[in-house]
Amino acid sequence: MKGWMGKSRILLLFSSLMLFLAGCGDPQLSALQPKGEGADVIYDLMMLSVIIMVFVGVVVMAIYFFVLIRFRQKKDHEDYIPKQVEGNKFLELLWTVVPIILLVVLAVPTVQKTFMLADTTPAEDKKEDAITIEVTGKQYWWHYNYKGQEVQTSQDLYIPTGERVYLKLTAGDVIHSFWVPSVSGKMDTNPGKNENEMFLHAYEEGVYYGKCAEFCGPSHSLMDFKVIAVSPEEFDQWAEDMKNVNTDATPESQSAQEGKELFKNKNCIACHAIGSSPAAVGPNLTAFGDRVQIAGILDNNKENLIQWLQHPEEVKPGNKMTGKYGNTEAEVPLTDDEASKIADYLLQLKPSEITPEDAQ
Amino acid sequence: MSTAYAQKNGFFAGLWDYLTTVDHKKIAILYLIAGGFFFLVGGIEAMLIRIQLIQPDNEFVSAGLYNQLLTMHGTTMIFLAAMPLIFTLMNIAVPLQIGARDVAFPFLNSLGFWLFFFGGVLLNCSWFMGGAPDAGWTAYAPLSTTSPGHGVDFYVMGLQISGAGTLIGGINFLVTIINMRAPGMTYMRMPLFTWSSLVTSVLILFAFPALTVGLFLMMFDRLFGANFFDPSMGGNHVIWEHLFWIFGHPEVYILVLPLFGLFSDIISTFSKKRLFGYSAMVFATVLIGFLGFMVWAHHMFTTGLGPVANSIFAIATMAIAVPTGIKIFNWLFTMWGGSIRMTVPMLWTVAFIPSFTLGGFGGVMLAAAAADYQYHDTYFVVAHFHYVIVGGVVFGLFAGLTYWWPKMFGTMLNEKMGKLAFWPFFVGFHLTFFIQHFLGLMGMPRRYWKFQPDQGLEIGNLVSTLGAFLMAIGTIIFLINVVMTTMKGEKVSGDPWDARTLEWSIPSPPPFYNFTQTPLVRGLDALWVEKRHGNGKMTPAEPLGDIHMPNNSFIPFMMSLGLFIAGFGFIYQVDDSSFLILAIAGMAITLLSMFVRSVKDDLGYHIHKEDLEKGAGSE
């Protein structure tokens, strides 16, 4: 590792690291490909720290390899006694002061950005129409209440692009953490009165993957959700559609009509609301047919929905729906026919013209 | 007072000897066996975790079992493997390095071990009694307080008992190092391992009570219906986070500081140079210890403490990089100009430097509060703390065990086998954990039982699991080495490494009274000073005389056993109040043992001068 060989190898390492950092993972999930203000700001800070670290790392490694190669005990020199050096004031001061300077370089933007990301008061001129959403994490799904808009949804969070959307975060049972890596960093949702705030600001339209990041029970790893960023016009349209949803509408197909009856008779309605109802204890199903995925993890099709309705415990262990409609683990809670009809009913719930496809 | 000293033979006599021993060297072996066993248990848990994550949507273990595995892996490795193995090293080396005949409180030393042991056994009993704890090793409320079954109860009781043992052990070493140094062994002549053990003991003294308090509150929440952490009843779960991390952050320094000291000793020995910047190293150790207490909330950047608290804790955390950097450079410059022998302990030490440096880089990155909003609770954090804890603590334990093996057993671990164990472990370690930094940034949160296909996380997880297999291979080779060395039993001299500190001035393994005559210390690296300026032997600081030794005692075992039994009683009285009998009986055993200890005169015995002279002749 001496001379130009060593230098070029380090350069190679450095540049390949940068390449690796710049383009890896799924662009809808990766924090390394920021698609929103929060993620962007953090990415810059991350890169600054990486540059500082690589600089320090190169210095340390250069000394390290030099020492290990140069000062190995030579053959026939077993009796050689090196000079017993006590220390060196200048050197020791040097490697105290230089790191302090480097840390200050990192600390200043860190503090700046920490305050910037914590600033969740809407700017004066936008105060009137800034969108505020109450987000509640529950085992193992997410509830959203658009403040002052009478719109409530679950799992898929629609936001407009190009502006900050403010979130007020709480939890219904245990601690969860709301994380959309490619748009913004995460924030915990605490049960009780510890409300947290953050903002989302997506630069471009897209369906971004969200994850629960705080360990919350058996299905912690299955508590996925989506953030659907659409243009402001589309968003207004969506909100309007959601507000005016007709919950009494009769489904077109016979099977879905029967499904609607079953939904009532099997007492699904006791937990799940369709339309805007703050009392619901389970996910709001108003726009279920437009969901990107069922339960956050299954492809949205009838087969999967039947599987979920009949064997919720197999799909999401420890979820709160298991056993809620008279089933034990052994018996199937709904017959194939019943599940199929309810599925038909749920899948035709598409109150809005704006769907995740509009965000692609 | 008895004056007889008789050696009994046979397996049961030997077993009885170990059950009752108060000799710090035998207690070190007890810690080694128990800690080593738990290390393997934790390792198996780790392998099961990595096998589950070898491919997306894997069904190898169920969600519930996975959560138990990850909880027990963390808890076991920290409390039942790393802590006791560090106590192995402290027990074997600290009294010898300061020229003491024993620790300050031999009885407490034994009590500390048995408390740790029974706490660990209690915790692991949960596997056979309806399921292990499943709320993560951090056991955040309300997930932990609402977790069904008795898993978390075992966590609370097991750690409470075992933590008491650690606290007792820490206090013992604190007093030992302050009070029992040989003449001439001033603070600024203490070997760095002893120095860092001293700082660690102080950290234990201040950190473990926070854990004790937290566990007590949780015990009352879970077992007696209190509501300290229940927000709906006016409690506050964030208090658990604070209490846990006020203990938990210093804990990582408790683990790694003694090994910093050890690395200093090893580097200096195998470079044939005195430590570069000794006083700066001491200062850095103390400073790291102090700052370790000031930064706990960096585990809580996303909890919602607000930007002011986050900024303060971010800067305080970054500050730790300075003394740590001082250490890294001083180690490099100790080697600079030296004559480096690449023995197995040195190999682990040399491997530690870049590994731990990378861990430190991850630490500084995590300290940037705003950026932590992306890293927190992801595989980036998993990668970081494994770099620190495996790269620092586990590497250090391998180095330390190999280094002091001859002192403990009088035999030397095979060097070739040692290197053969090192390489797969080292390569496997980086393979496993380096890529996890990227997994985290690519959107993989930690504690995930499954990851979804087609989200770009497949390759990273696969590589990581393959690396874990390599680490397992390295560990197995190390074990084979231990077995083979023990079977061969080739004796070595008292100073096989040509080392510099006091423990190498006496035979291997040392006689049970350590030093026939207390040595006189004439400088830093006491033995080296005598090798260079004397006749290679320590000058005695006292004339040959009778040595006073403490008696063996079975009481520590009984006291701990009582708490172990009571633990079951407390846990199961929730289901059936008749189990309170077990709790009362267990507490009675403990209190009765304490009573016996208090009223019985136990003055120890003397080894007479004449016997010492005979003994000295035969060596």
UniProtKB/TrEMBL annotation, chain A:
GO terms for biological process: ATP synthesis coupled electron transport. Its cofactor is Cu cation; heme c. Binds a copper A center. Its main location: membrane. Residues 254-350 form the Cytochrome c domain. Residues 23-121 form the Cytochrome oxidase subunit II transmembrane region profile domain. GO terms for molecular function: copper ion binding; cytochrome-c oxidase activity; heme binding; oxidoreductase activity. The chain crosses the membrane at residues 41-69, 90-108. One of its GO terms (cellular component) is plasma membrane. Its EC number is 7.1.1.9. It is found in: Cell membrane. InterPro entries: CcO_II, CcO_II-like_C, Copper_CuA, Cupredoxin, CuRO_CcO_Caa3_II, Cyt_c-like_dom, Cyt_c-like_dom_sf, Cyt_c_oxidase_su2. Gene3D superfamilies: 1.10.287.90, Cupredoxins - blue copper proteins (2.60.40.420). Residues 128-241 form the Cytochrome oxidase subunit II copper A binding domain. It is a multi-pass membrane protein. Subunits I and II form the functional core of the enzyme complex. Electrons originating in cytochrome c are transferred via heme a and Cu(A) to the binuclear center formed by heme a3 and Cu(B). NCBIfam families: CoxB (TIGR02866). Belongs to the cytochrome c oxidase subunit 2 family. This is Cytochrome c oxidase subunit 2.
From TrEMBL, chain B:
Pathway: Energy metabolism; oxidative phosphorylation. It catalyses: 4 Fe(II)-[cytochrome c] + O2 + 8 H(+)(in) = 4 Fe(III)-[cytochrome c] + 2 H2O + 4 H(+)(out). Gene3D superfamilies: 1.10.287.70, Cytochrome c oxidase-like, subunit I domain. Residues 10-522 form the Cytochrome oxidase subunit I profile domain. Keywords: Cell membrane, Copper, Electron transport, Heme, Iron, Membrane, Metal-binding, Oxidoreductase, Respiratory chain, Translocase, Transmembrane, Transmembrane helix, Transport. SUPFAM superfamilies: Cytochrome c oxidase subunit I-like. It is a multi-pass membrane protein. One of its GO terms (cellular component) is plasma membrane. Its EC number is 7.1.1.9. The keyword Ribosomal protein does not apply. It is found in: Cell membrane. The chain crosses the membrane at residues 28-49, 69-94, 106-129, 154-180, 192-219, 239-263, 275-296, 308-333, 345-371, 383-405, 417-439, 459-483, 554-572, 578-596. One of its GO terms (molecular function) is cytochrome-c oxidase activity. Its main location: membrane. GO terms for biological process: electron transport coupled proton transport; oxidative phosphorylation; respiratory electron transport chain. Cytochrome c oxidase is the component of the respiratory chain that catalyzes the reduction of oxygen to water. Subunits 1-3 form the functional core of the enzyme complex. CO I is the catalytic subunit of the enzyme. Electrons originating in cytochrome c are transferred via the copper A center of subunit 2 and heme A of subunit 1 to the bimetallic center formed by heme A3 and copper B. Belongs to the heme-copper respiratory oxidase family. PANTHER family: CYTOCHROME C OXIDASE SUBUNIT 1. This is Cytochrome c oxidase subunit 1.
